[in-house]
Amino acid sequence: MHLQSLLDDIASKSSALAAKGKVADYIPGLAQVDPNRFGMAVATVEGELLGTGDWLVPFSIQSISKVFTLVLALALDGDKLWSRVGREPSGDPFNSLVQLEHERGIPRNPFINAGALVVTDRLLSLEEDAFGTLLSFLRHESGQPDLDTDQEVARSEAEHGHRNAALAHFMASFGNLENSVDRVLDHYFRQCAIAMSCADLAEAGLFLARHGLRRDGSRLLSPSQAKRVNAVMLTCGTYDTAGDFAFRVGLPGKSGVGGGILAIIPGRCSLCVWGPALDPSGTSLAGVDALDRFTTLTGWSVF
Ligand code: GLN
Description:
The chain has helices at 3-14, 65-77, 98-102, 113-126, 130-142, 151-159, 162-173, 181-192, 198-204, 206-209, 223-236, 242-248, 285-298; strands at 39-44, 49-53, 59-60, 195-196, 253-255, 260-265, 269-274.
């Protein structure tokens, strides 16, 4: 199978899905993105990197950042984190408040916003320069020393971040934040506003396909930790459509409202797709379609 022509073929078909979705506009800084953009990249464990369409164009990684803060917190703190955040699918939208009251401030999983805020809070306690640690990790793994936060997007989200502020305050009221709400939110908005391309994200996620090994061969996660992060991505990475994503794509995946999806084929490769037009759950329509086609045509999946 010729991977490049497969990717080009997928791009020509999946990009048409943009017409059926809607760009995220609850963060005004994201609303200007052209919904018809489409890119896809594959990074293999053998070191090959290829892509199609807008695969080198940076976009806002948004909730894909939650994977990276989770792995850094786990690498530093091990299993202790799981006493403050669960690992069950929520079946609710990513920014929902409803379960938190019943479950006494313990978020269902690290990929809904409440869970990601707890993970960020833990990282802030563990690392003096938590944001610097995240950025240097992403720069190193992607091989892009200049990647950074888009300050405009971060500011725009902070100005409209009432729901995330509500989640953080609510968890603080249950004693599930160690740092001030303002500090946690500031870090969270900046991590979501990091701009990376499909190529950068596929490279940065490759350690999950390498069972925890980083680009330079050093170990970030144990094979068991990498397996678990992949499992949580499969069950919770696309929120209330995680079941449908698993059904169609059959891979661990993490979406963001910037339109990106990072997906992992353990032992083989890491994939990133970008199409800014979203379904109602906040996941890229063209992105899911492209990953569905990719796993169907290649037969590469965890199942
Ligand atoms: N920054 C976004 C938010 O908190 C991330 C949501 C997402 O990408 N699903 O609303």
